[in-house]
């Protein structure tokens, strides 16, 4: 909560009111999305270059999003919330 308040204060104090209302209000949201993506990427660790993308048990998945929804709905919900 404190970080979000700090982000809004920083953006609102460095921009004119017109700029803030037209496009500046998006900056804290973009920054939080980038930050979350970096945390998730760091938690996954280094990727193995020998494994093909969307591989499950040695086979390539035809519909990776459907596979994700079917196998790990709680993880997906945690990532988007």
Mean pLDDT over the full residue set? 75
- What kind of oligomer do you see? single chain
What best-fitting shape do the alpha-carbon axes yield?
elongated
Structural class: mainly alpha
Figure out the total of helices. 5
Number of domains: 2
Give a short summary of the structure.
The protein has five helices and two strands. The chain has a two-stranded antiparallel sheet. With 81 residues, the protein is mainly alpha-helical.
Please tell me about this protein's structure:
With 81 residues, the chain is mostly helical. The chain has two domains: 1-45; 53-81, no CATH class. The chain is built from five helices and two strands. The chain has helices spanning 2-14, 17-22, 27-44, 64-71, 73-80, and strands spanning 55-56, 59-60. The chain has a two-stranded antiparallel ribbon with strand order 1-2. Strand 1 (55-56) and strand 2 (59-60) form a beta hairpin. It is elongated and about 55 Å long. The two termini are 15 Å apart.
């Amino acid at each position: 909560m404190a970080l979000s308040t700090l982000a809004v204060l920083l953006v609102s104090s460095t921009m004119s009111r017109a700029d803030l209302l037209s496009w500046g209000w998006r900056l804290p949201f973009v920054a939080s999305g980038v930050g979350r993506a970096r945390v998730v990427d760091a938690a996954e660790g280094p990727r193995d270059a020998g494994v093909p993308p969307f591989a499950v048990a040695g086979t390539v998945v035809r519909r990776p999003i459907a596979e994700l929804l079917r196998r790990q709905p709680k993880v997906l919900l945690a990532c988007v919330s």
